[in-house]
Amino acid sequence: MNTELNLKTLIVKKPLKLDCGKTINDFPIAYETYGTLNEKKDNAILVFHALTGDQFVTGLNPITNKDGWWSYAVGPDKAIDTKKYFVICSNVIGGCLGSFGPSHKDPDTQKVFGTNFPVITINDMVNAQNNLLDHFGIDKLFSVVGGSMGGMQVLQFISNFPDKAKTVIPIACTSSHSSQNIAFNELGRQAIAADSNWNEGNYNSKDTIPNKGLAVARMAAHITYLSKKGLQEKFGRKLQEREDLKFGFDADFQIESYLRYQGSVFVDRFDANSYLYITRAMDYFDLNKQFNGNLSDAFKESKAKFFIISFTSDWLYPTQENKDIVIALNAIGADVGFVEIESDKGHDSFLLDVPDFLSALKNFLDKSYIEN
Amino acid sequence: MKNEFKIIADLIEKDKKVLDVGCADGTLMKFLKNNKNINIRGLEISKDKVQKCIAKGLTVIEGNAEKDLIQFPDKSFDYVILSQTLQAFLNPELVINELLRVGKKAIVTIPNFGYWKIRLHLLIKGTMPITKTLPDEWYNTPNLHMCTIKDFVYFVKSRNLKIFKSIALNNENVSSISDTNLGVKNLFADLGIFLIEK
User: Fold this and answer.
1) Is ipTM strictly over 0.95?
2) Is A144 helix (H, G, I), strand (E, B) or coil?
3) What domain range is A67 assigned to?
């Protein structure tokens, strides 16, 4: 985390009561925008990021010096066309790129929060981000869109603020985190906790951050973002810069080397405690339960136009879980479209160059905007 | 737009809520939306065709009529359209029941297997008929349950469903079907269009 960077930040004065019962005040939300807000202020799209995303949706991410996480989908002439639309994205609270999170200092004690940071939920995240609308003077967004945890925030947002978006696009997500989802997240959290550097969340000096645990968490999670077929085609049993097996425990196989690399670059940009907090927020997400088992009730106040997208090879948030959202919307006669995109790229499909997905997203947005 | 769609559109009043089951590339949906201010939804099984509907700005759900109609509440549409697809279902009777549960009325069109050219093809050539409306070979046709106009009328009556309109179509020729001309229409129409209600 580079706190010396000049991140755009909104300090929210309005107190926010969290689901855990605590109230936070004067907290920062770090955000980024792309494109221009028009005079009528009717071209704004709020993009929600996934677990390890951040506000740098597209263009160069100044922290990683790599392309933003949704560069395939967002930018000039892309599916979410920044020549047309004003795109806002903020770092979720609990995150580690400028928004209020466990690496911040507790104003009461002047010590880094660590695990003393309050447990936050998807509901808290969207309630915090709603302040951005007031900041920009936007009454109604043209769209709310996001994949994975971003999709969960989309669902929660329109449930909390039924009149604040004209179109709603949850991608590759679920209305209720499954047991399997929770299990994988717990694996990641336990990997972090097993690193002695984690020290119950109290790691302040740079030399003692729980890199190994966080890297293992990332490696395990990364596997869940890909499909078996995609892995087999990309790596198979190919060996890593060697002619034959070495009869040891170095990375003999390319897939091992790939995962180790993914783990090692992740720890440079992500905070272990944030990983705990955000995965917890995902696990607690159960919109069905919020509405006593009737998901339709979450959306019944909204007149928005919904478009739900899933991917054939996504086994983390499979098509059926996305379809359950479609079913709940049809039960109340909502305007809802749905498409399952053919892709071998697993859950990560929404982040990658998948032409059928990108064209569906672009067509839906652009046609809806004309009718706007 | 094909004649069949013009006839279907004429059966529907303005400003209604309509579901097009098996909406293909959305041609009929778009016409209804633009010309009759219909609140239109589509259900389509083919991913390619779903994409075409999205590109037209239409609300479409990728899905299978035999499995996915169940999610729509009773009488949630004024009309449900099923164009030339009934014969392709495993259980056409179940689909008809679902159409009439979801819609207040249903418009069903069927390619008529009693059409004279089809009868002649089978009589003379002795092979499975191939026509403009039934272009596939026996081994690759999606059609599982072909029927004639007469079969469909008998079926609807046997289930005590009401037929509001039955229309015979032969190329550009449109005429109505009645009890007295059923035999003739069954011979000379290549398509039957029915407006039915439970």
Assistant:
1) no
2) strand
3) 9-178+286-371
